[in-house]
Amino acid sequence: MQQELRERPKGGSLFLSFRGGMQTLTNALATAIAGRVNIVHGEATAVTRNGDSWQVRIGNESLSARDLVLCCPAHVNAKLLESSAQPIADELAGIPYSSAILVMAVYDRASLGHPLDGFGFLVPRGERKTLAAATWVNTKWPVRTPPNLAAIRGFIVGRRAVELASATEEEILTLVREDLRSFMGVTAQPLFHTFYRWPSSMPQYVVGHGARVKNIFQHLANYPGLFLAGNSYDGVGIPDCLRHARHTAQHICARSI
Ligand SMILES: Cc1cc2nc3c(=O)[nH]c(=O)nc-3n(C[C@H](O)[C@H](O)[C@H](O)COP(=O)(O)OP(=O)(O)OC[C@H]3O[C@@H](n4cnc5c(N)ncnc54)[C@H](O)[C@@H]3O)c2cc1C
């Protein structure tokens, strides 16, 4: 990971990511703590307070800790805290989320009929049919696409993603291709495509979000050892999440001294 940062070419893409995708980051974190931290895979179903410690229910197991950092989406944290920190749960439940659908269409570059002379496009709300945006992967992350292929990643977000929640992959691909035809003039048949649904994945910082977050963090002061981190509070980008996580870790370390 460090090496990838050092190798960033001068004058290269404006965007920064990992060659192997974002999981590189979480894999590196898991490797860094291996042997010192017990990683349990499972769905947390409840959080309760017992004296000075917090209990997390995962399947038939119950994990106990003095400090607990909840990093699930706000609507999940709300359910987990329903019985143990209701004022916080109520505020968390009020943070709305939007959904997204990602479709990557991969073409034979020679038959694409478009120069990919940019990073992609954004579609203004008033002109949107299906796609809200599309990334031209070849120019945004050149190492991810061999020169003979062209990869276009389409984003469907908000109300349209909800409307298409039960549509089939083929139906959605047809709509995406219709948009690519109208915005880029691309009529070629993709060689293959990938498809990912991200339901309720993006917190929406609606009017009043700042006040709500302030309330949440004020309430947290009444629940020693309970912490919240992740994208629901103070920025949705990965750098925001890292900053908030570091701040939370420093807080916990300060409590331990
Ligand atoms: C389609 C899309 C594209 C994006 N593109 C970018 C980008 O280009 N750049 C950027 O900076 N940011 C981007 N973001 C935003 C960024 O990815 C997120 O804000 C960030 O990943 C949020 O991290 P998080 O840890 O808060 O939440 P998440 O990554 O959502 O992690 C929450 C975790 O909680 C787990 N979980 C949920 N419920 C439970 C439960 N009951 N028990 C146990 N675990 C549970 C989930 O499985 C998940 O692993 C994008 C987001 C989306 C959806």
How do the strands and helices of this protein lay out in sequence?
Elements: H1 2-6, H2 23-33, E1 44-50, E2 53-58, E3 61-65, E4 68-70, H3 74-80, H4 86-93, E5 97-108, H5 109-112, E6 120-122, E7 133-136, H6 137-140, E8 149-157, H7 158-163, H8 169-184, E9 192-203, H9 209-220, E10 226-228, H10 238-256
Parallel strand pairs: 4-10
Antiparallel strand pairs: 1-2, 2-3, 5-8, 5-9, 6-7, 7-8
Bound molecules: flavin-adenine dinucleotide (FAD).
Residues 43-44, 71-73, 76, 100, 102, 198, 201-202, 230-231, 236-238, 241 line the site of flavin-adenine dinucleotide (FAD).
Describe this structure in words.
By secondary structure, the protein is α+β, with helices and mostly antiparallel strands. It folds into two domains: 40-95 and 205-256, FAD/NAD(P)-binding domain; 97-202, Polyamine Oxidase, Chain A, domain 2 (Alpha-Beta Complex). The chain has helices at 2-6, 23-33, 74-80, 86-93, 109-112, 137-140, 158-163, 169-184, 209-220, 238-256; strands at 44-50, 53-58, 61-65, 68-70, 97-108, 120-122, 133-136, 149-157, 192-203, 226-228. A five-stranded antiparallel beta sheet has the order 6-7-8-5-9. Strand 2 (53-58) and strand 3 (61-65) form a beta hairpin. Helix 3 packs antiparallel against helix 4 (86-93) and helix 4 (86-93) runs antiparallel to helix 9. The model has no long low-confidence stretch (mean pLDDT 93). Flavin-adenine dinucleotide (FAD) is lined by residues 43-44, 71-73, 76, 100, 102, 198, 201-202, 230-231, 236-238, 241.
